Each structure stands twice: as C-alpha cells, then as structure tokens.
C-alpha cells in the first residue's frame, strides 16, 4: 500500500502532506490547550493551524527554495486540512452530546 502511494505521488509530496498535517495539528492543539477553548471555537483554532502551516510553506517554497512547486504547496495544504476535519468531527460530536 505504501509503495503504491510512493509510486503515485513520490516521497516529496507525501512528506509535504505529512509535515503539513503535523505542523497544523501541533499548532491547533497548542492553541486549543493554551486558550482553553472548546466546542465551535476549536474550528477557529484549526483554521489558524492551516493559516500558520501555509505561511510556513510559502516561506519555504518562495524564499528558501526560490522556485515554488505548486504540487508541494497543494500537498501541504491538503495535509494541513486533516486536523481541521478531525476537529470538525469532534465539534459535531460535542454539539450532538449537549
């Protein structure tokens, strides 16, 4: 299974996806824990996680690399959306239970 993903997308894109998810997840959870938010406010923390991740990705692609790869940016964005989806599902469960 992993070999098929690597053959289809390549290591670089999979790493962009993974690091996008990790950076967004860490920032989102730090913000949630620091601010003590719950419920729908978690969505705003997840959106902030996406924004921070994409700012870092743009710095990496445009300034550090100097030659931006649109597919790298897209892979990072898709990865950064994963924590948003997880938080949205959690918020739905929170709303349903109250």
What is the SS-derived class?
mainly alpha
Distance between the termini: 40 Å
Number of strands: 0
Mean pLDDT: 92
* Count of separate DSSP helical elements: 3
Could you state the order of secondary-structure elements as H and E?
HHH
List the helices and strands and how they pair.
Blueprint: H1 2-35, H2 41-65, H3 70-97
Helix pairs in contact: 1-2, 1-3, 2-3
Walk me through this protein's architecture.
With about 100 residues, the protein is mainly alpha-helical. About 90% of the residues lie in helices and about 0% in strands. It has three helices and no strands.
Task: Give me some keywords for this one.
98 residues, 3 helices, mainly alpha
Brief sketch in words of this structure:
The protein has 98 residues and is mainly alpha-helical. The protein has helices at residues 2-35, 41-65, 70-97.
